[in-house]
Design goal:
Three copies of one chain form a homotrimer. Chain A contains twelve helices and nine strands. Chain A has helices spanning 2-15, 28-38, 51-57, 70-86, 101-113, 123-130, 141-144, 147-158, 193-206, 211-232, 236-247, 252-258, and strands at 18-22, 41-44, 60-64, 90-93, 118-121, 162-164, 169-172, 177-180, 261-265.
Chain lengths: 266, 266, 266
């Protein structure tokens, strides 16, 4: 597995996939710089009249509803259809789904109209998308179920590969479940870390035949970079900078020495 | 006073208030990271169809007109009404008011329709809001009046607590006036420092019964962080990073040793 | 030439020109901080109802189509007309022109309706704007022509001074052509470097009578800052910070010792 991850990293640096992000305004700059650091090429564009043509140039599409508006939802639908028609991967990041009716409806629409390659969210977001209820009283499933249970039930219900991030990161489709235990708590102290990982997953999906391998590789690369960054600083401002620097300089040896990957179930 | 400030800081770190920011596109990332560094939780959302529900989850609302559009003004009004109904604090940051008719009208509408907990601006913005004219020829009051005079007259006219930032920061309601003399000139060399302080004031207001104490605490915490950051670097790029790091690590001792707070009038 | 550049830098720091940017959402923060670092004052505003009044306060206008929407294009046209009427410089940065019909039409409209002081783009963007075709099969001219040929042909066709950035930066009008060979490859590893240079060119144009001198000065200042920043770090995250710091601290000696400026043709 480690050799396959290293090969995908090499492919990104050589092929430089163009990642089209329709994402939230808070994280645009950080996402663009993170993709550059990895060796991919970012493009941000959300005008309805041009997203189809942007997709025509892109190698993957990432949809993130963090500061979604009615207009941008329409652009996402147009871009998503174009990406499906072209056959490039589409990653969906349902930021804050469940917090408002608008986001929940938007997420439902995206999931029903677009063929998604991957959904990336935290336990609460994934549970909400899958309609998991732990009890009759509607308590959030993420508070009573463990990670593997949530992601397994969710992939069954949603029929889409899922990356569920948290203290441990889980990657699953309907057949297989992996977990990655690298990373740093500092990832929760800065804005946009999860959003950046969604876009990085898009870059790995763009160069890989296997969805699960690509997502495992993306999580491995990103969380090992976070680990290295957290060895340089314990403060959130400097951590952002160190994370970008680490994303630009992870070596084969880093992956071989550090990766904590486990197959949890089949 | 120092002990009360320290207690509020502790409360923020424990209660982690959720601060809903409808703010300008330039400072969204910096504001979100600054709130995280403090220990609060940021959410940025401006779609009219969801802001009411976002407010339902929030502990304070911050309205900043830096890159205001007609649509976002409508969202601010909806969110402001919801915040008033729920009883959470609303901070208004009138960026650039007076520069255009659009901003001046927007500010008037926000002030007349929303019950504000605090207005945060510089002397020119506050003078404009309060309609202060120093002379018959309409010279900007901020050029001829001193800080205490401007803020006292403005709180009388506007009947809202005010935080007026500058070389010295003034905090006042109709009864009392404080000044804080901490800070660094580097705050004027980076974008979004004032905007971040407005959001940090929202976080302190969210955990305090007393408005004036909360705002004094916010200014104290923020300007002491700036002072510490400026001891690490004299350059603006690194200063942004150091400011975030300092916001995450101010100690009781920092507040006790450094705070330059003075009651100026009653 | 070096003394004239130094004099313009001094003028920016003293006159503090206000640069009105209607720019893309990815780079707003970096652009604002870069202008502050230089000593200029940034303002970002794109609401159609206020851009005319913003221009009334501004010393230069910068139009950047990186995340353009239909609405913001209208604001650009209004702002551009106001800037022309007032007689302040207008810089156009045609990000990604040629990638979509929407951007190409937008660029055509801006070029036909607004009197531009400068166009800043890479070789592909400039070639597209000028309609250069290297062969009958429509191969991108930037792949077969050298830099001096592209910029010379483009200034003839477009009749606007051009700054064409790349490994070497070219500055030309219909009479004269300069090249600057300073800079760093790290400029291509972070987002928004070119966009920031466009805004910095706006600042130099705001304080200069001579367009070509102003643009040569802007490129010299910016690329020498990049060179100094790249001496401090070889990583992209830290490079952004070092670039801002260098922009705030370039000295006379830096310009005299480092500038690689050459007159290529007349």
């Amino acid at each position: 597995m480690k050799q396959s991850i290293i090969k995908l990293v090499e492919q990104i640096k050589q092929e430089r996939p163009l990642i089209h992000n329709i994402t939230n305004q808070v994280v645009m700059n950080f996402t663009a710089n993170g993709l550059y650091a990895l060796g991919a090429l970012p493009i941000m564009a959300h005008e309805k009249n041009e997203v189809k043509e942007i997709v025509a140039h892109a190698d993957a599409l990432v949809l993130n509803i963090g500061t979604l508006t009615t207009e941008i939802l329409e652009s996402m639908i147009v871009a998503g259809h174009a990406a499906n028609k072209k056959g490039i991967p589409v990653v969906f990041d349902p930021v804050g789904v469940g917090v408002t009716t608008f986001r929940s409806h938007a997420a439902q629409r995206i999931m029903s109209e677009i063929n998604l390659s991957l959904i990336r969210g935290n336990a609460a977001e994934i549970s909400h998308l899958a309609g998991l209820r732990a009890t009759a009283r509607g308590v959030d499933a993420s508070e009573v179920l463990d990670g593997p249970s949530i992601i397994k039930q969710s992939t069954q219900k949603l029929n889409v590969p899922i990356l569920m991030t948290g203290k441990v990161d889980y990657i699953a489709n309907q057949e297989i479940l992996y977990q990655v235990s690298n990373g740093s708590e500092l990832l929760t102290k800065v804005t946009g870390a999860g959003c950046l990982l969604s876009s990085i997953a898009g870059a790995f999906l763009a160069v890989s035949e296997s969805c699960i391998l690509a997502v495992v590789a993306a999580v491995s690369y990103f969380t090992i970079a976070a680990e290295k960054a957290a060895e340089k600083t314990s403060f959130p401002g400097q951590f952002q900078i160190e994370l970008l620097d680490a994303l630009s300089s992870i070596t084969e040896a880093d992956i071989i020495d550090r990766l904590c990957l486990e197959k949890v179930g089949e």
